[in-house]
Amino acid sequence: MMSFKKVLVLAPHTDDGELGAGGFISKLIEDGAEVYYMAFSTAEESVPEGFPKDILKTEVRAATKVLGVKDENVIIFNYQVRKLNYARQEILEELIRFKRLHQDIDLVLLPSINDIHQDHSTIANEGIRAFKTKSIFSYELIWNNLSFNTQSYISLEERHISKKIDALKEYKSQGFRDYLSADFIRSLAVARGVQFGVKYAETFEVVRLSIK
User: Fold this and answer.
1) Pairing of strands 200-208, 135-139
2) Where would one find the signal peptide in this protein (predicted)?
3) What's the CA gap between 144 and 153, in Å, rounded?
4) CA 121/CA 119 separation, integer angstroms
């Protein structure tokens, strides 16, 4: 059984990491892993009326705290939403700087390269470039994935799904989004669990698996 000790989650926007891998993040931390969470856009231009423009900075810290991520391990950038592709080189350099400081990262979680959202595909591609010698799993965001290879399943318990749901509840400014609902999160985990022969699961594309 593989054991990951130091994990980096790359989220194009605040909430992407929790949506795609919240259960796995919770399980990793429970098993003793050190998890870092890097969000690239707080989508200030898309925040609904009535909320502070920087509300997602507060919400992502609250959400990742529910999963068990240390506050000092949450790194937030403020690139403009839907324009991350214009900052590809700068993003790549940020990732390389992080890698130099944390050379013992042994797993990176990021969006699928088949994700049709331009911000997601940018982070997927630059993340793979920066961490090409590490194990890389792509998480599932089914509303943006026209195709997704379910190559790896992570078996989860009720407590992991409950933490994922509770984490996503912290995004009060995004409550109108149907993919944040508890019913959807649980249903997808159950469906993936059926495929894997367990009660709950999250599934990932294996971009690279490094065994040393």
Assistant:
1) antiparallel
2) none
3) 19
4) 6
DSSP calls for 135-173: EEEEEP-TTTBS-----EEEEE-HHHHHHHHHHHHT-GG
0.90 surpassed by pTM: yes
**For 89-109, what is the HEC assignment?**
HHHHHHHHHHHHHCCCCCEEE
Reduced to 3 states (helix: H, G, I; strand: E, B; else coil), residue 122 is: helix
The distance from CA 160 to its chain's CA centroid, rounded to whole angstroms, is 15
**CA-CA-CA-CA torsion sign (45, 35, 153, 115):** positive
Task: Give the pLDDT band (50/70/90) at residue 26.
Answer: very high
Query: Three-state DSSP class for 177?
Result: coil
Q: How far is CA 125 from CA 8, 98, 99, 116, 128, in A?
A: 15, 16, 16, 12, 5
| Cβ–Cβ under 8 Å, residues 84 and 202 | no
The pLDDT value recorded for residue 211 is: 86
Query: Tokens 């509300």 label which residue?
Result: 55
Residue range 76-106, pLDDT digits in tens: 999 999 999 999 999 999 999 999 999 999 9
Amino acid occupying residue 171: Y
Render pLDDT for 146-200 as a digit per residue (tens, 0 to 9).
999 999 999 999 999 999 999 999 999 998 889 999 999 999 999 999 999 999 9
